Amino acid sequence: MQGTLSVSIWRGGEAGSFQPYEVPRRDNQTVLDVVTYVQRKLDGSLSYRFACRVGMCGSCAMMVNGRPRWTCRTRVSRVASSGKLTIAPLRNLPVIKDLTVDMTDFFDKWAKAGGVFKPTATRAEDFAAIRPTDSKRRHADAGIECIGCGICYAACDVVAWKPGYLGPAALNRAWTLVNDARDGNGAARLRAVAGDDGCLACHSQQGCQEHCPKHLNPTAAIAGLKRAVAVAALKGRL
Amino acid sequence: MRRDHPTWWAFAVHRLSGVGLALFLPVHFYVLALAIEGEARLESFLVWSSQPWVKVAEAGLIFLLAAHLTGGVRLLALEFLPWRDWQKTLVAVSGGLSFGAGLLFLVNAY
Amino acid sequence: MSAEKLQTCLWLVQRISASVLAVAVAVHLITIIAAVQGGLTAAEIIARVGGNGAWAAFYGVFVAAAAVHAPIGVRTVLQEMTPLPNFSVNALSALFGIGLLIMGLDAVSILYRLGGG
């Protein structure tokens, strides 16, 4: 494949600007390849994150032409048909430098939403016998593949409009635990996800589901949480 | 941000129609209360409102109301019934029904 | 009441009033579309609601549900799309609801009494 790509990359912190770079096109090039080329050949001061580069870890998530994506799994041919590419740091998170963001809020909200498993059994007891076909287990299984990449968080407009909103990933995690029969933190978790910053703030825009590279559905999880919270409130257990 | 998926538009229509209706309601109540000055006062307003542009505006309001209703019923289903992927199609259905209601009004207003 | 309980209550009330409104609005839409055939007159409106306890009660419930539903919705829009602090948002929404309730019930009672109710 011949020709060059016109790439615009965010440089700076919260304040900064897009800088232009010309990158040679290659067959089967990914956006991560492009960023790597810029850092190695054009400007060694460019900061960015990656790890596995094969679509397993989620570290390379960035905004590509306005959409949050895993750059290692985004083919340039798919997103830059007009020869132009704009790469920016993930939305809704503070920018540290260039393409790296501070994920602290993202994971703090994970904990705030009760996304921590609280065991009820000890080593001395036999392990819990839960059928994989059990309906609650199926709900949990639908959400446990989340690797915390932050793409859904970046895609969510409610996160952008309500800085305190726990967000799709944290709430999805909470839902998997609500459905985990072995967990003992049910009541506190429902209280944690109720309220204006919790599941009730979701407007079912489904931006999270649209962009999740693992095809998870946080909107469905959040709908489940809404039901659970409403039932708890009606039963006076909130 | 990619916002061209149907469920985002469903949200946008729902929010815009809600705000529009919220602004319209006090006006609506005010007009109806004009009747306190006698049937003739309300009647003269209704005569004014029989102008074509008013009828088109009213059809627009009917569309907003129907859109907010159908979008809202879709949300109630999404939140209270077990999740089904075809709920996305309900967006299209809601849109169609709302448009139909508006059209029906316009047709009947003549 | 804790913040979570209050906000969950508001959310529930919003959904319940939505269900009431779903029925009321459907009836209202059908009524409007039927009534507007051949032109709408004040006499027609007054004839329907005036002196008619059932219609007055219907519209009374309709107004109450709307006066609850609209402010809760407006509250969310204000929270998300304006820089107003929470206190102002809640106060404005509450005032809006009270205003709607008064204006709406006023309109219903006027029309009811005009028809000899």
Number of strands of chain B: 0
Q: What's the mean pLDDT score of chain C?
A: 89
Q: So what's the oligomer here? A: heterotrimer
Helix content of chain C: over 70%
Helix content of chain B: over 70%
Low confidence ranges of chain C = none
What keyword list fits this structure?
heterotrimer; A: 238 residues; alpha+beta; Ubiquitin-like (UB roll); Fumarate Reductase Iron-sulfur Protein, Chain B, domain 2; 5-stranded mixed sheet; 10 helices; B: 110 residues; mainly alpha; 3 helical TM bundles of succinate and fumarate reductases; elongated
Note the topology.
The complex is a heterotrimer of chains A (238), B (110) and C (117).
Chain A: E1 4-12, E2 16-24, H1 31-42, E3 61-64, E4 67-70, H2 76-79, E5 84-88, E6 95-97, E7 100-101, H3 104-112, H4 135-141, H5 151-155, H6 157-161, H7 168-178, H8 186-193, H9 207-211, H10 218-234
Chain B: H1 6-33, H2 39-48, H3 52-80, H4 87-108
Helix pairs in contact in B: 1-3, 3-4
Chain C: H1 3-35, H2 42-49, H3 53-81, H4 86-114
Helix pairs in contact in C: 1-3, 3-4
Brief characterization of the structure:
With 238 residues, chain A is an alpha+beta fold.
Describe the protein.
- The complex is a heterotrimer of chains A (238), B (110) and C (117).
- With 238 residues, chain A is of the alpha+beta class.
- Chain A is 35% helix and 15% strand.
- Chain A folds into two domains: 4-101, Ubiquitin-like (UB roll) (Roll), CATH 3.10.20.30; 104-234, Orthogonal Bundle (Fumarate Reductase Iron-sulfur Protein, Chain B, domain 2).
- Chain A contains ten helices and seven strands.
- In chain A, the strands form two sheets. Chain A has a five-stranded mixed beta sheet. Chain A has a two-stranded antiparallel ribbon with strand order 6-7.
- In chain A, helix 7 (168-178) packs across helix 10 (218-234) and helix 8 packs across helix 10.
- The longest helix of chain A has 17 residues, at 218-234.
- Chain B has 110 residues and is mostly helical.
- Chain B has one domain: Fumarate reductase/succinate dehydrogenase, transmembrane subunit (3 helical TM bundles of succinate and fumarate reductases, Up-down Bundle), CATH 1.20.1300.10.
- Chain B is built from four helices and no strands.
- In chain B, helix 1 packs across helix 3.
- The radius of gyration of chain B is 17 Å and the shape is elongated.
- With 117 residues, chain C is mainly alpha-helical.
- Chain C has one domain (3-114): Up-down Bundle (3 helical TM bundles of succinate and fumarate reductases), CATH 1.20.1300.10.
- In chain C, helix 1 (3-35) crosses helix 3.
- Chain C is elongated.
- Chains in contact: A-B, A-C, B-C.
- Chains A and C meet through helix 10 of A and helix 1 and helix 3 of C.
